[in-house]
């Protein structure tokens, strides 16, 4: 399983690092003023998925972040 975060202003952890609940991993960005500040989050159980240019109707390999977080919340 991996998580993918986009539109971050600053990344505060290194790739592959183990993070714990509540740890700040990044600051939210706005793509150089192109968008309102927001976070793009993907949860994947297929580690071979490419970084894509947008959204797709094919969600194979992706997990619903809300369901995953709620199921694994302690």
Give keywords:
74 residues; 3-stranded antiparallel β-sheet; two-stranded antiparallel ribbon; 11% helix; alpha+beta
Strands of the biggest beta sheet: in what spatial order?
1-4-5
Please state the CA-atom Rg, rounded to the nearest Å. 13 Å
Total count of strands = 5
What share of residues is helical?
Answer: 10-25%
| Structural class assignment | alpha+beta
Globally, the shape reads globular
- Tally of individual domains: 1
Series of secondary-structure elements, N-terminal to C-terminal: EEEEEH
Share of β-strand residues: 25-35%
Largest sheet: 3 strands, antiparallel
What would you say this structure looks like, in words?
By secondary structure, this protein is α+β, with helices and mostly antiparallel strands. It has one domain. It is 11% helix and 26% strand. It is globular, with a radius of gyration of 13 Å.
Q: What is the strand and helix layout of this fold?
A:
Blueprint: E1 2-6, E2 8-11, E3 26-28, E4 40-44, E5 62-63, H1 65-72
Antiparallel strand pairs: 1-4, 2-3, 4-5
Summarize the structure in short.
With 74 residues, the protein is an alpha+beta fold.
